[in-house]
Structure formats: structure tokens, C-alpha cells
Amino acid sequence: MEKKYTNEEIRAIVAGAFKPLGCTVEPWDDYGEKLRVKVREADGKEKVLKITFRHVRDDANLTTVLERFREELQEEGYHLDPWTPSGKGCI
């Protein structure tokens, strides 16, 4: 059976996916249904991802969204540590 994550688990997993860069994970709407993820380098360069909790509640979808965003960041020159979906960071 596919793992279903809580909002707090999703926030922690998202924060850990972009190390060693700075990562801010914050609510993006008044209802707590969306997250805005800001990833930034030391030089201030920043990239934003907006996520709706219901689209990333399960492991497969969350992994796909984060892997695509990581690829996009790396193509733009951001340097990321290796990451596995089970690795959780801190918020």
C-alpha cells in the first residue's frame, strides 16, 4: 500500500530534498492547502516551487514533483547533495 503523508511529513521531506541550499517551506494560502518552497543559493539566487498538498500526499507523486524540481535546479546551475525520497530534513 502506498504511504500517505501528513502535511508536517511533507514539509520535512521537501526541506530535506534541497540540501545544502537554503530552503524555506511556508504556507501559500489562507487555508493551509498549498506550500511555497523557496530554494536559494548563498549568492541570493532563488527559485520557487508551489505545491498543493493533495497532489503530493502519496510517496510516488511527492517523489516525482521533488525529483523534477531538483533536475530543473541542477540544469540551472544549482548544486545539490544526493537525495533519496526517504531522507527527511528539518523544517
Q: Which tags fit this structure?
A:
single chain; disordered C terminus; three-stranded antiparallel β-sheet; alpha+beta; 3 strands; 91 residues
User: Fraction of residues in helices?
Assistant: 25-40%
**Number of beta strands:** 3
Q: Strand order of the main beta sheet, please?
A: 1-2-3
First-residue to last-residue Cα separation: 27 Å
Spans of 5+ residues with little confidence (pLDDT < 50)? 87-91
By secondary-structure content and strand pairing, the structural class works out as alpha+beta
Count of domains: 1
Q: What overall geometry do the principal axes of the alpha carbons give? A: globular
CA radius of gyration is 12 Å
Which sequence of SSEs, written as H and E, runs from N to C?
HEEEH
What is the assembly state of the chains in this entry?
single chain
Please report which band the strand proportion falls in: under 5%, 5-15%, 15-25%, 25-35%, 35-45% or over 45%.
15-25%
| Average pLDDT | 86
